[in-house]
Amino acid sequence: MLPVESVETLSEVSLVSARRLPRFRPWYGAQVRLQLQPSLSSADYAYSHRLRVRFAETDAMGIVHHSRYLPYLEEARVEYLRHLGHPYTELRAEGVDYAVLEAFVQYRQPLRFDDVVHVHLRLGAATRATFQMAYLLTVDDDVRATAVTVHGCVTADGRPTRMPAWLLALSD
Amino acid sequence: MLPVESVETLSEVSLVSARRLPRFRPWYGAQVRLQLQPSLSSADYAYSHRLRVRFAETDAMGIVHHSRYLPYLEEARVEYLRHLGHPYTELRAEGVDYAVLEAFVQYRQPLRFDDVVHVHLRLGAATRATFQMAYLLTVDDDVRATAVTVHGCVTADGRPTRMPAWLLALSD
Amino acid sequence: MLPVESVETLSEVSLVSARRLPRFRPWYGAQVRLQLQPSLSSADYAYSHRLRVRFAETDAMGIVHHSRYLPYLEEARVEYLRHLGHPYTELRAEGVDYAVLEAFVQYRQPLRFDDVVHVHLRLGAATRATFQMAYLLTVDDDVRATAVTVHGCVTADGRPTRMPAWLLALSD
Amino acid sequence: MLPVESVETLSEVSLVSARRLPRFRPWYGAQVRLQLQPSLSSADYAYSHRLRVRFAETDAMGIVHHSRYLPYLEEARVEYLRHLGHPYTELRAEGVDYAVLEAFVQYRQPLRFDDVVHVHLRLGAATRATFQMAYLLTVDDDVRATAVTVHGCVTADGRPTRMPAWLLALSD
User: C25 in helix, strand or coil?
Assistant: First the structure.
């Protein structure tokens, strides 16, 4: 059972034509669509990263501000890449970045100051230039949020580039 | 033409049973789904808010970090409510909050330091306890991002409550 | 050898009169002055907390944005209180907050994405209602920043209150 | 009456020797000291920038998080430079950055969501490679905070460089 059920991503055609456009143009007008269904079971995820909520991440509602989940997902991705033997700093040193093309978060129950959050994640569908990741956030095995991000491999000057083979091999 | 084409939200049933659950429980397990298609034409939006990118919002890729778009959307919502004569501070003083249930952002072209961004927004579909907003972010009439957020009206202790009539009246 | 050499803080007089003023008024006009000299030797600090720089914390100069150091200091304080057996969540549950009255940071060398930072800290001078903390930030034993924060114990509605005895006992 | 009463900054000697050290080394060990006394009267400031507090900038104490003041100061500096006819984007395009060497904030009364804040600022003392700025933050003419920042002019690869003549001419 896939956490991400069905995905339409950048077509080959749009990627080819995109290469003639200026920096980051490729995604302009792209028909990226997600049908998101990240699993609610942590057993369906390949990796888990633990972090603790900072006070600075809360807001006047007394809960973690919704914008603060995205750096949590990013931190988990970075740790996952390190775990896979491909630290993000090395990728960046080689001139490859994983630009975020889309992000979707479903906030199911709030996170609070000092909560210990487990960010479970797995690589979902991939094309030659994009990949998706699904996330489950839990506190004490209690579901707090799910999320999906879509990434494009880009060079230092923002042009789309092929995904590393090792990353493609890990995808669904 | 609707910016948000089709939406399934919290069912009445889940809302009723949710009332017996502790704080913020209502959304746990809720089957909220978006089919997102915010219009790329600013003419399709009801309101526009202008802001300027801060240096603190950029990241080491030289562009605005993807998490920083969500506060932009929030700032635009707050200004829209003020424009409608219902400042968010008054709503909060009355014990009503608009919790964010879902957020989706499509990053089409990057934003950079000092860019003047227009956040166009409109109210999309609404139910008795939730509403959606669609967004278009432009710089010099150039599309940079689109987004959708789903909100639930909650009381100060996190229980879902009916939407104000004036808000319901504005929805599609 | 003290990391904080000499400190003038809120006088008793201003604190007494402050109690009659509305929420948070106490600090208005207060003559708080620091002469800051946090030690550059990690051996002079009571506690050390380790954290890793997130990509989201960098800016377009390719380094950690200067505003991002303050949450690092806060995270280290929270861990120090936990280490002392007085978790901040408990203090907050008892209605006590440690409001930040002043913060000073000296940026000596930049922090970068993925750096593992050690935040060394110690309690400095304390009065009956305020205390100071000194910090040293290192990466691989290399000094990156020093900092001092001044805190006031306040009740949930913002009035100054006496420091817990255990905290006073720890101060210089 | 000067907002910044007395300042000792990087000595010529340390700057000269610093040039032989690697990126950002110059400040390592530098004896920068502030004696801070920003004026509490807005009439003593050269420029004022208006901004509104975002909900995302509040924390679970219901007030603006203390780390969020630094981006406010930065935003005001950027607008001041634009007002002077020297937009920061142009300076950056010419390869000059104003690295933050020190920051000091005195939090006198809290800021809250939706507050309209006036950030008053003025250039303080300057040397050939550093300058200081003093700030007063007010809401409805009520003092909320004062601050001082110390900046160093650096090239794109982090070496100290001379301040532009127009900036030096503006200093005390």
Answer: helix
Confidence (pLDDT) at D94: 82
Rounded distance, CA B149 to CA B132, Å? Answer: 6
**A75 CA: distance to closest CA in chain C (Å):** 6
CA nearest to D113 within chain A: A60
Kindly report the nearest CA distance between residue B21 and chain C, in angstroms: 22
Chain B residues with CB under 8 Å of C115 CB are: none
Nearest to B114 among D54, D56, D89 (CB): D89
Q: Nearest-5° angle of CA D59, CA D62, CA D65?
A: 35
| Gap from D54 CA to chain B (nearest CA, Å) | 6
Burial of residue D123 (CB within 10 Å: 0-12, 13-18, 19+) is buried
C115 flagged as catalytic:
no
Residue C111: which of C76, C68, C71, C78 has the closest Cα? Answer: C68
Give the three-state DSSP class for C98: strand
Partners of C63 on chain B (C-beta within 8 Å) are 60
pLDDT digits (tens, 9 = 90+) for D87-97: 988 888 888 88
Contact check, Cβ <8 Å, A56/D62 = no
- Whether A128 and A37 have beta carbons less than 8 Å apart is answered as no
Low-confidence ranges of chain B (pLDDT < 50): 1-30
Provide the 8-state DSSP code for A58: B
Under DSSP, the state recorded for A150 is E
End-to-end CA distance of chain B: 11
Catalytic position from the list C59, C142, C157, C172: C59
Domain boundaries, chain D: 33-170
Residue in D100, D55, D33 with CA at minimum distance from that of residue D73: D100
pLDDT digits (tens, 9 = 90+) for B119-169: 999 998 788 788 899 999 999 999 999 999 999 988 877 788 888 888 888
- pLDDT top residue among D130 and A29: D130
C-alpha span between A156 and A24 (Å, rounded): 11
CB B119 within 8 A of CB B77: no
CATH superfamily of C33-170: Hotdog Thioesterase (3.10.129.10)
Q: The complex's ipTM?
A: 0.82
Q: Is C65 left (phi over 0), alpha (psi -120 to 50) or beta?
A: beta
Q: Is C24 left (phi over 0), alpha (psi -120 to 50) or beta?
A: left
- Residue of C71, C92, C113 with shortest CB distance to A89: C113
CA distance D131 to D100: 10
